[in-house]
Known about the structure:
Elements: E1 2-6, E2 11-14, E3 27-29, H1 31-46, H2 52-61, H3 77-130, H4 139-157, H5 168-181, H6 183-195, H7 200-214, H8 217-224, E4 234-239, E5 244-248, H9 259-274, H10 281-284, H11 286-290, E6 296-299, H12 304-314, E7 324-329, H13 330-335, H14 340-344, H15 347-376, H16 382-390, H17 398-408, H18 410-428, H19 436-462, H20 467-482, H21 485-495, H22 498-508, H23 511-522, E8 526-529
Antiparallel strand pairs: 1-2, 1-6, 2-7, 3-4, 4-5, 7-8
GO cellular component, one term: membrane
Membrane topology: Multi-pass membrane protein
Pfam families: MFS_1 (PF07690)
Amino acid sequence: MAIVHKPGRAREVTFGVRMDLLFPAGHHDAKLVLLSVSVLGEFLQGGLMFGWPSLSGMLKQLGNFNADCPPDGITCESQESSLALLWTLGIFTLNCGPVLMGFILDYIGPKLTGILGVVLNMAGLVLFGVSSSSGVNAFIPAAILLGLGNITFHLAQFHISALFPRSRGLVASIFVAGFTGCGIIMYLLTLVFESTGASRASYRTIMLCYAGICSLWIPLLAWMMPSHSFRVGMVYLVRRDWTFDVRMRSEFARQYRRTTSLQDFVASSLHQLHGGPGFRAEAALPDVLESPRQSTTLHMQLADTDHERLDAAAQLPQDIAWGPLVFEARRFVELRKKTFSEQFWSTEALGMGVFYTLNVFIMQFYLGTTRLQLEKKGDDGQYTDFANIIVAFACLGIPTIGWLLDKKGYGTTLGTINGLNVLSSILQAVPNLQIQVLTLLTWMISRFFMYSSYFAIFGNLFGFTNFGKLVAADNIFNSLFGLLQFPLANLGLRVGYMWINISQAVVLLPLFLFAYHMYHWENSDLVPIRPMEGEELEFRVY
């Protein structure tokens, strides 16, 4: 029997090849179809507020908020301040949305929450389309509704990652690729706007028509999305009559013995062979646990009688393949069992809150001031266009962030994100315009990694029982802190952005300590878990 260790947050030893589920006649696995529909929805409307540089450019071309501006075409502080206020309100509600929508998601489920997100997005687009600073001015409610609709739609999709328990980091990164890449939609709408004369009528038509495109997801979600969030251990099936069914893996026991059934057998057998309550996983698997970051093969020397004892204890059918045995830090396994209050006040939750609040604020500040910062470095619009386009290529980072989350763990992932954001802030302070290509690439990657890791780590670390409430509580601080976007943007208009960018890099440096502690915690005191459920095995390894 060969035990092969694969490095990562949860250390995995594999026994043979895992079998696929065998479904009843007339049922087929539909999780990839649901994932595709949800990711397409994310790309089309999940993060429209991230297209603010393009949307604000259209508003500026139409002469909104220019009543007090000089006619010479220089940067107008009053106009930019009004646009900065709209951005601050939109991103505030996007960040603050989980405070309300997290509880709503837990109460009414993903189907109705997703439909609510679509309706809010449509309302925001319609209000942006019909508003004018010199006429019907509904820009403020438009920004609020659009930001709230974006995060509401996004939250409603994220539970689908539970259908992919062994690749949740990868799936999370796919969702976030659509969410953050959605900003390019506004750039594409700007191209249509300019090609049709850049008139107020064409702008209104474009925004109303795109609201109609978003509305297509109302019947799609009503048809395909379940009323209750998926949990790890569930499967999503489609019947021949094109209706969908959510079932538990355990319901297919006659056709398929869960991987974890064999895990229970292997772990309990090791427990019996190696003796009593003093048994430790480290004693049975020394090479595996001494080299957590290197692939290791350990051949267990068992006598023929031992093999007979194991086979007799297992009572496995002949068609059952051996599956993975996964180890995870006891600290994190126990954390998932705690109440909401205990999880909220844990060191992990507080540390994650501070880490993401600061990183999100700095990344969003640059997003809201990209056009102005580039203009002050001499940009004539080409670099701003590049900034609008590059976000769509965040999908190229999916394999990397998926590998970091699923194989390298929390500490390494958080340290990588923080390092990229520090580098991006330093590059933003460089006055050279050509360097800003590297700035935009670094910022795009760090922002994509941050959003991918946020929901993936929260879901894995705390479980989905209190997921909505924890995300809601975390985003209270995130959104309140985000209100500093407006005064900081005005400060940048007056004194420049260089020292603001440098100060942001300095503020992030202490967060490397939290990343180090997460790395240490996840590699200490390992216990075997069920990979399909994330829970500790029934017996306890001391």
